[in-house]
Specification:
66 residues; 2 helices
């Protein structure tokens, strides 16, 4: 039976990789957010396919009034 050992990569000396410094800078997060919005703007603007609308309507028809 082969067991794979999962180990962390050694941290570079002098790096402050503690929990207080984890994550991305606010500038990096803003840049990534901007690029993701640019990427998905076209997708959001696309109309919902007719087949999906039919399925959603069928689901709505099956709901019982409270």
């Amino acid at each position: 039976m082969n067991q794979t050992k999962h180990s962390r990569l050694p941290e570079a000396e002098g790096d402050d990789n503690g929990p207080e410094n984890a994550g991305l800078s606010s500038d990096s997060q803003a840049f990534i957010g901007l690029k993701l919005r640019e990427l998905y703007d076209d997708v959001v603007a696309e109309p919902i396919p007719e087949r999906f609308m039919q399925l959603l309507n069928q689901l709505g028809d099956n709901k019982k009034p409270e």
